[in-house]
Amino acid sequence: MSNAKSEGNCASMKDGGKVNPMDIVIVLWITTFVTMLGIGLIAPLMSIYAKQLGASNFEVGLIFGSFAIARTIAQIPIGSLSDKYGKKIFIVIGTFFCSIFTVMYAFVSSVIGLVVVRTFNGVFSSFITPVAGAYVATVAPREKLGEYMGIFSSAITLGFAMGPLIGGFLAAWYGIRTPFYFCGALAFIAFLVSYFKLKNVVVDRTGKCKYISNNIIRGNSFNKKLISLEFLKNKNFSVSYIVNTLYMAINAGIASYLAVYASDYHIGVASIGFLISSSNLISSVLQRKFGKIYDTAGISIMYVGLIVGALGVYALSLSHSFLSMLVSLVVMSIGGAMTSPSINALAMKDIPHYKKGEAMGFFTTSLNIGMVIGALALGFVADCIGLSNMYKFSAIISFIVCVGAYLAMRKVE
């Protein structure tokens, strides 16, 4: 896959005027943050709400799985279509319908209804984050790709960090359905911001681009297939995809069972929420800085991040108190802040501008696949050897992933 030499020339004309790419990134950051805040806000409450509707444990899993599966299936063709018709229209449609279907949670009266609404929410969420990430990768100057992807990633982690705290407060004080109304309002705000503030970008095969006010771009026929595996032929992309899948699997296993692990040592629900939110907050603050380091130091920051994260996971396996768990999770979050922007930037490094949407849609399936694999596989491991040993096992896997990535990328570097 060739690398366009003129990548990074997106600070060009917008209806006759100059545009700073960072202005576009700020709009995308706000849209993504508000959307992910809403998702993070209701996700911890969904199992409680499902139980109130009479869901079994299997049905609770189905409710969560329906979102991930629908999102995974939809985001590859959506990414390709966003390259063809422009990214703005998909972000606008996604935020609008996410606001509608989020409010509909409050009116569901059966488990099957919750599965249906959750499925539609998964589909339309694929219109937002992967497309916004591709837009950021498109407008980012090549020499600042890591920094820009770090900024974008911080919107996701910060949204997840603040969401559980706000959701728990609203549910406790105003009822379990109140967070759904609040999240719907947030998504509608994201819709308004993206509709009125976001511009479309038109990219030619040379990587030159311009900003336009049209909601839909017509005539871009670069991508003829909605789903393509051609990106896996690129070493940077394929290694990033595998590393991200395994990295997310490890994180999913940790997140899925952290509450159970902490409660075994008499740590309360509020304290567990603080552990999760504080570690995500630290990661979101540091991601832009480590993204900048990637731009100068290269892929080595990803290796360091994987090792630091592994040390944090291993320390967690030895933690028996709130303070020791907090320290372990902080170490993990620092490793994650190094790893995430590096993986995203490496994946997008050689992708032509006019295929960023398709590539990002494909790449973000690694997140969903990793989460499903991690929750199931590490849950099985935990049943066999216990939660503490499962975390030790996860740390070992993380080290192996780091070594494997280094060996795979050594010839490329």
Automatic annotation (TrEMBL):
Instruction: State the CDD domains in the record.
Output: MFS_MdtG_SLC18_like (cd17325)
GO terms for MF: transmembrane transporter activity
- Annotated TM spans: 24-48, 60-78, 90-117, 123-140, 152-173, 179-198, 239-259, 265-286, 293-316, 322-347, 359-381, 393-409
The record's listing under InterPro entries reads: MFS, MFS_dom, MFS_Exporter, MFS_trans_sf, Tet-R_TetA/multi-R_MdtG-like
Where located? Membrane
Which Pfam families does its entry note?
A: MFS_1
What are the residue boundaries of the Major facilitator superfamily (MFS) profile domain, all occurrences included?
A: 24-413
Which membrane topology describes this protein? Multi-pass membrane protein
Main localisation, per the record? membrane
Query: Record's GO cellular component, any one?
Result: membrane
Looking up Gene3D superfamilies in the UniProt record yields:
MFS general substrate transporter like domains
Assigned keywords, A-Z = Membrane, Transmembrane, Transmembrane helix
Q: What is this protein called?
A: Major facilitator superfamily MFS_1
